[in-house]
Amino acid sequence: MESTIIERALNGKFVLIAEIGVNYYDIAKKMHTSPMEAAKLMVREAKDAGIHAVKFQTYKAETLAAKESPSYWDTSEEATTSQFELFKKFDSFSYNEYKELAEYCNTLGIEFLSTAFDIESADYLYELMNVYKISSSDLNNLPFVEYQAKKGKPIILSIGASNSDEIDKTIHTIRKYNDQPIILMHCVLEYPTPYNHANLNKIVTLKNIYPDLIIGYSDHTKPDSDADVIKTAYNLGAIVVEKHFTLDKALPGNDHYHAMDPTDAKKIIKGINFVNELRGSYELKCLETELAARQNARRSLVAACNIKKGEVITESMLTFKRPGVGISPSEIKNVVGKVASLDITEDTILQYSMIK
Q1: CB under 8 Å to 284, separation ≥6 — which residues?
Q2: pLDDT tens per residue, the chain (356 residues)?
Q3: H-type helices in the chain, by residue range?
């Protein structure tokens, strides 16, 4: 199977990934439906909004966090203070459920992937997705990075809360076993990320240091009114953008209050399309749409006085005026010293047929 994410990114096309994560549990509770129906609803809404891929999170609380793991999120938005307790609320799905979701995504034409947080899920997700996603939290978990790299699929690697030596070491670990495309995602591990902490210039640094990798951005800021965060990230070089996704930003919980909803997603895609219209081509040449203005706004050599037939033309006999339909002022040396082949009245736009 071909990956929409990788194919678009390698061709320089923007990719938006909806990080559904485990938000479907809260949506199910709100809508009095099953988690599976809520997850499928979120996939449909993502597809309808124009999103290119949806990503879930696959884990079991017992293999992810010790029972004494403290919270690191805004507890005014998500009151649970234990990572284990939070993850335990959202870990009921296993292979069969993710297989059903992957097949559902395929029928809709939206790419499915899920972040694996343990060996078991990394194994059973292999047949369900085209790309592995490695969380920032596992960047230094090199045995697990190596295990996923050996699967031989492209990898999306988030690098939140990491230093350059750690990033290098993780990329080196992947490259020992895997020559597939790597998407390196700038990320800030603050939930939400204040706008003045987004540090989007890191995207430029990543592009300069890792020119052979695809650079992206995993965003944890609250959606802004004009999608300026995402548009700026894209303009700085983030071709792939991942953002948490919800159907209700007012819901309590760790990943709703800083997530995009379908309206935000449509705004992002519309904004990126507009940016692409503005960016246009890299080619340095006159556009066809400029030809009329070019001709009329540029100047021609014009007779500054009456010039008689047979008279030798001097520079003092010439001036330059609009439009640019005659001899260009850049060619004045080809005119001075030539002889007028006919009487030329003052203010005439010179043509080569008038001189010899």
Answers
A1: none
A2: 689 999 999 999 999 999 999 999 999 999 999 999 999 999 999 999 999 999 999 987 666 666 678 866 677 766 777 777 766 667 779 999 999 999 999 999 999 999 999 999 999 999 999 999 999 999 999 999 999 999 999 999 999 999 999 999 999 999 999 999 999 999 999 989 999 999 999 999 999 999 999 999 999 999 999 999 999 999 999 999 999 999 999 998 778 999 999 999 999 999 999 999 999 999 999 999 999 999 999 999 999 999 999 999 999 999 999 999 999 999 999 999 999 999 999 999 999 999 99
A3: 4-10, 24-31, 35-48, 61-64, 83-88, 95-108, 119-124, 142-149, 164-177, 202-209, 228-236, 262-279, 291-297
- Range of the structural domain that residue 48 is part of: 4-279
Q: Verify that 265 and 304 share a domain, yes or no.
A: no
Q: Which of 211, 183, 205, 22 is nearest to 98 (CA)?
A: 22
Under DSSP, the state recorded for 326 is S
CA-wise closest residue to 216 among 33, 4, 9: 9
Number of domains in the chain: 2
Which one-letter DSSP state was computed for residue 215? E
Looking at 279, 308, 328, the residue that finishes a domain is 279
Residues 128 and 210 placed together within one structural domain of the fold: yes
